[in-house]
Amino acid sequence: MRSQSASLPIESSGIAECLDKLGSRKNESRPLSTYRLQFNKNFRFVDATQLVPYLARLGINTCYASPILQARAGSMHGYDITDHNKLNPEIGTEEEFREFVAELKLHGLGLLLDVVPNHMGVGHGMNPWWQDVLQNGRSSKYANFFDIDWAPIKTELRDKVLLPILGNQYGEELESGKLHVALAEGRFQVSYYDKVLPVDPQTIPLIFEPLGDLSHREYPDIPEGLLNELRGLLIALRELPPHHTADPDRAARRQRQMPVVQERLRDLVERSPEVRNIIEKALNLLNGTVGDPYSFNALHKLLEAQVYRLAHWRVSAEEINYRRFFDINDLVGLRMEDPQVFAATQGLVRRLLADGSITGLRIDHPDGLFNPPQYFTRLQMLYAASQCCGAEPVPPLAENGIELDVQTVFSQYEWMENRAPLYVIVEKILEPGEYLPQDWPVDGTVGYEFANLVNGVFIDKRNRKAFTTLYNRIVGDGLDVDTLIYQSKKLIMHSALSSEVNVLGHMLDEISSTDRRARDFTRKSLLDAIRETIACFPVYRTYIDERGNITDRDREYINQAVSRAQRRNGTMAPQVFQFLRDILLLRANDSGTPIYGYKKQLYFTLKFQQLTGPVMAKGLEDTACYVYNRFISVNEVGGSPKEFGIDVNEFHHGNTERAEKWPNSLLSTSTHDTKRSEDVRMRLDVLSEMPRTWGAQVMRWRRANRAKRRALPEGNSVPDANEEYLLYQTLVGAWPLPSRTDALDMRLPPEQREEFVKRVQAYMTKAVHEAKVNLSWVNPNPEYVDTLQRFVARILALGTDTKPNAFLRQFEQFMPKIAFFGAINSLAQLLIKLTAPGVPDVYQGQELWDFSLVDPDNRRPVDFDLRRRYEQELSSRAETDLAALCDDLVQNWQDGRIKMWVIERVLQHRARRQMTYRAGGYVPVQASGAKDRHVLAFARAYGSEMCVTAVPRFAYTLMNGETRPPFGDAWGDTQLLLPPTAANASVVNVLTGEKLRVNSDRILSCAEIFRQLPVALLSTENYS
Fold this sequence. Notes:
This protein is an alpha/beta fold. The chain starts with a helix and ends in a 5-residue tail after the last strand. Strand 20 and strand 21 form a beta hairpin. The chain is built from 38 helices and 31 strands. 45% of the residues lie in helices and 12% in strands. The chain has 4 domains: 2-120 and 337-448, TIM Barrel; 123-328, Maltooligosyl trehalose synthase, domain 2, CATH 3.30.1590; 480-614, no CATH class; 863-1019, Sandwich (Immunoglobulin-like). The strands form 9 sheets. An 8-stranded parallel sheet has the order 18-17-14-5-2-1-22-19.
């Protein structure tokens, strides 16, 4: 195929036929289920290889891997990639990766890979591209790979990169000797603690300036030939084209000459001890003497001549001139819209697609990209090229890593009509009421909208007012969620992301200055309009492309944001907002042709929408969700603190929409980014059923712990009321299940208690920093943190006979019912996830109970040996007496085997009934009877096949708080009316093996359905 592709005309190359085959095989390549694994130095390819047989027995169809490309040394998550074309050596070798892939294929599993197109990790001198930029500036061949503003507002930063890496002011760090230059492996470099920065070769002569004249008279002991050679090299270095040149010819000459001169210098140093002595003397003088400020003048001069300008880390918010991943300075944005950057970062991915090592891609943070849909389309073309033309681009038809003939033929097909051949899911955060654009060539999202949908159906929305009243009683009245989100987004724009906003303000000011109707707008008024509009933006971002195409959806969001901003700011001139709206909507000036230039207007719009996402994420997810703590189960990625439950019809509508539009979207309930694990949220949802009991309990706990709070010298009480209420909810949600078999005894053994205290202390430390109320990451307060951690330790400490811990005793007495009904909620949520339209995803370790909090808590090591042992036991016992096994699982629910049983049983069933779950319709099942609001049911139907999912809602209320089975007794006369397909059918409960007969009236009693287990999956097949 490769040789044909290079020599035959497109219509004869076979590529069209290849694409047809890819389209026809599309559904076959979509996963049935996924299992997320977090790779790092403590969990490597060899560990994952050993797990594959277990995952296969569990019924998993696809392994879903965190990023595996080379990342910063010691990275525990892999999102700080330093080289897109190498595997991470800390995770394993290429041979070990191949063995992992071979094991997956042997057991019939695919591999879904998490890729990171938006940014790269650049810290600690480990990224060769970034190091080249820091050495060569605009003349670097990677200068346009990163999203750097080479002509920023601050003129002294022109052609430089601001590096805010210093712990203190530049002058203080310089004169305290913390910055120094050294020679390592023949290269001069600047060191600052563990940071290593290159020295521009053209500036190397400055290192020798303190030595004065390098003449034989000054150095009589050194052969004149060596001195002449050294002086000649310094002249050659000085004459290199400067790093700030943007002229292609001069940049090419620098790139060509620089390695040659550097290698000559390295050779001279290696063979001449005399030259090494000169360099050592020069560096001693250059690096200065602490206590003598003037001795650092030469070092300062050298540093000022570099591509980078070193600065205090606090400067980053206002002056940094490169795009970051949110506000993380060591993660620099890539210009993935540039075809050259796309090609340079996708080489390894293409090879892995070509040889079938990976079967799908998960795209991290696509909203950070300049043009996400363009990137998705290029990925589909890359996949087509990998399958039709091979692992490497084929010259002369290859351009930017994708064959021209593939591009041409690909464009002739209606790939947007559900024919995109590669399985791609995107980490797109959808706000309530927002939909994924239908024309994107992807299969759906990573599933946050599903997580919030399924969580909402287990929250009793009737008690919303009671929880709001309780919260206001604790923290005080007047905290409006919408206002909080608005203020939080403005806080982010004034602090962490102020530089990005200032750049937009400068751009808009330039545009307005050439418009006679807008030139009188001050830069301040334009900046204010930008901030206010972004603060009022209803979604993460819009998707206007570089051709100026704008959808009705995006037009509506922009109009909505500007209108809200204008209403909130009655003292500002409305014309400023109207001007901003016209720019964002790419509208012409009413007086005729816009004189400010369409290209500038479009570029501003594209950069504006690239910023709204980070502001939303930092303002909502990482600020408001830690401040408004009325009911923290809803404070989740893709959710909102103002939500409080949904009704069943809304739940069914969401599933119906997904079945019709995105049937292969992931269904996630726990991820590496969720604020709380699926089991924590389900446990917290029990509280929504008992507002009076919960309120009384909280007030009792506050009184019991009053003496344990401490006041700081400035008068702050630690924790404040809001933090204390967050802590109590966190304790309820995350309290571990003891290893003892008595489910009513929630006391923790000493080691388990000690570990839990540390986890909660770490979580609360992160929470108060993210809230940005009493302290923040930018303005830390160690005394506050220490006092808060002591409070956590004191309230969880064991009491004595003479001084008992009243709070702990009350808490342990309160928890058994919450834990029991939280487990029922978890099983219900799990069964819904495993059977609803979409692809169910299991996060590592979640096949047993897991009460993890936000990262890094949710990345703790998983005890896979225990899980494998449990799975083997379940498989063995399933072949003998299912009734006895189910009874055992219920009686010993706290060990988590019942959760694993549901996963294994249902995933195996999915494998048997693939079309039912891939393409089957979604039909809500109606309930009747006194307890009808407590059951949620739906059917998946394909042809004559039918499966019915039935789970309880508000089980605490349903069972009057009784924590003992049998479950069927609680349902009374409640019944389900099954779809017509079930009439006169024999159905089997997939989880228990029970066979039920459905009469012509299609009615089954809930007492019968839930006789053995609290959840049920009924199938028309004979399940064995």
